[in-house]
Amino acid sequence: MKVLAAAAVAIVALGSMAACGDDKGDTPGTASSGATKKSVKVGLAFDIGGRGDKSFNDSAATGLDRVKSELNLEVKDLAAVAGESENDKYARLKLLCTTGYNPVIAVGFVYDGADAKNGPLARAAKDCPNTKFAIVDGGTTADNVADLVFAEEQGSFLVGAAAALKSKTGTVGFIGGCQVDLIKKFEAGFTAGAKAAKADVKVLTNYLSTPAEACKGFNDPAGGKTAATGMYDQKADIIYAAAGGSGTGVFEAAKAKNALAIGVDSDQYNTVTDASLKTVIMTSMLKRVDNAVFNFVKDFGEDKFKAGPTVFDLKTDGVGYSTSGGQVDDIKDKLDKFKADIVAGTITVPTK
Amino acid sequence: MSTDTTLSAAAAQPAAKPRSRRMSTSTILLIVAGALVGLSLVHQLANAPDVTSSGAIQAALQAAVPLGLAGLGGLWAERAGVVNIGLEGQMILGTWFGAWGSLEFGPWIGLLIGILGGAVGGLVHAVATVTFGVDHIISGVAMTILAPGVVRYLSYITWGSAGATQSPQVVDQVPRLSVPGVNSLKGLEEHQWFLISDIAGVLRGLLHEVSLVTILAVLLIPLTAWVLWKTAFGLRVRSVGEDPQAAESLGLNVYRYKYYGVVISGAMAGLGGVYLSTVTSAIYREGQTGGRGYIGLAAMIFGNWRPGGLAVGASLFGYTDALQLRRGSESVHALLILVGALLLALAVWEFIRRNRVVAISSAVLGVLSYVLFFSVDKIPTALVQAAPYITVLVVLALAAQRLRPPAADGKPYRRGG
């Protein structure tokens, strides 16, 4: 039994190491690169999924990596754990701001908390009044918080139009990871785009989870696959997956059913690890979180911090669609026309 | 060997009692047939072809397997008297080790490694609860908190910073089998004929493109029933869950049998995890178990701590989950016809048996189902996703008096005490 006990102790120790060992920032010792601006240390807290989700978080990670390489700043990022509480998120932000990281970027609406006035970010911003914060996709209002928000509906409009133009069956699908206002924006834009391109197109929609289940639908590839298979069985031939990590399940279903899918946030044609899944990804709705993160840090460095919302839309290339794989090359003219109309304001894309 | 015979004689008596309440094969077949006719009626009345489509049945089977395996895990532990609320954690270990093993050594060894991962989780729980007498709930919760941390750490050192939360795609999967000729039922299914198309859909869903792991998992249900109720080993495991002192007085090493139960429990949950990461999807993803361990535990309670019952529970939950995922709430909305009818029938039955409280509450629920059916076109997603939990609550409320957990379930046991 003593051996077993020792093993148990070892495993417990391993677990606690894991709890604090998942940051990957540079150690402060590497002064050579940070010599010029060593006072600026950028902290970033990921959403559930973190680095390696091949989607939303990876886009933020790309921005942070650019900050590190192009601006020569010291960076540190911390990952979130699925199922954690709001207090854990608050503790993460506070850890960053109290250990000298300024600015601090919170990635994902989860940092707003259930009540943005008293959520994790609002509390951390109050505790560290001299630190500048940014939240991607959030709506926390404070004098030291910048809200980096995206016009996802505009990007979704374009991929919706692409889906309708490319569909052979006249039915397309939308799968959202969680039934929240943010993801409903994707659905609204996608539906509007599909109808604008082809008035009689049928759009099927479904969500994998609700906030009551801690939005587990962003991490449920099995659920994504089941939902997508269900839609393909209903004669849909192109499905837009706005479901984070569940998207790979949608791609698997598309491959099995010999159909197509549309990625989200990152250019998922380039981020899927299985090459055979590339062919099913017709395009991806790009949400340039990387640009937002990079520009926010750059502006901060030039003393141009602006509290409140900054919208990244088609006009500023904050959103868009990808062309990797060349499957939408033949309809690019039509999509660019829609894009021009949206930028010019002749088309207003609904958000609900 | 003398322990063996004494024990079997001693426990033969209580084992015989519940058997009298058990359903005969013909009753079970009758219920299955009734369910099929009921679903066919729903299909026609509410124009909901997906309730018996092969796609839905296949998805339901795939959704039910992880729940059933978690339920079996719960069964093995609780039959040995240890509450294993750490099933979720052992499942998480299974998802990670299964995916890692499949990536490194191919699908079959991956399966084995995933099962071992879960079993190690079970072992830790056994060390804490059996050897050190830690409260079962506390140890189980600790397991559920510990597991995500361990796998995050392992992901980080295996796949590096670029993949701390998910694995590369698992390309190599365990093969899928089809019964020859079953694919030709597709035509029949598409005709939408009453009952015939429904049977075709169900058969095709169950027999076409079924992963070998699914077959293995389904076989584990009768295998568990056989081992636990028909072998000396199973009898001993159950005896330490019913009355460990009595078992000890007959010379049984109670600790050892509790260890067996809990380690097998972890292995079952681990297999459920492997199934999630390598069969229903082909990737390990942090948080992908999504509470399935707990729903498995609910299925076990629903099934009255018996393999057959928990299989029914897991199938029900898997079925509603699959319907909901495939068509939003459309098909589940149609199912309300059946649910309402069943509840009203139950109300009449219980009224005749003078169970006023149960009769009235099921009548109210039945009427509510129909009110809901006629007043809305789509059930809110949140309500559908809560369906497994609501079902368990209703079952617990209606049948709690008849549920019978192992007598010493969750109670601390000290040798010689």
Notes on the protein architecture:
The complex is a heterodimer of chains A (352) and B (417). Chain A has helices spanning 2-20, 31-34, 56-70, 86-98, 120-127, 152-166, 181-197, 221-233, 247-256, 268-271, 275-278, 289-301, 332-344, and strands at residues 41-45, 74-78, 104-107, 133-136, 145-150, 171-176, 202-207, 238-242, 260-265, 281-287, 308-312, 319-321. Chain A is an alpha/beta fold. Chain A has 2 domains: 37-150 and 291-301 and 304-312, Rossmann fold (3-Layer(aba) Sandwich); 152-287 and 322-344, Rossmann fold. In chain A, the strands form 2 sheets. Chain A has a 6-stranded parallel β-sheet, with helices on both faces. Chain B is mainly alpha-helical. Chain B has a domain at 50-172 and 184-321: ABC transporter involved in vitamin B12 uptake, BtuC (Orthogonal Bundle). A two-stranded antiparallel sheet of chain B has the order 1-2. Chain B is globular and about 60 Å long. The chains are: A alpha/beta (352), B mainly alpha (417). Chains A and B meet through α1, β7, α8 and α9 of A and α3, α5, α6, α14 and α17 of B. Chain B: Its main location: membrane. Chain B: The chain crosses the membrane at residues 27-46, 108-134, 210-229, 259-284, 331-352, 357-376, 382-400.
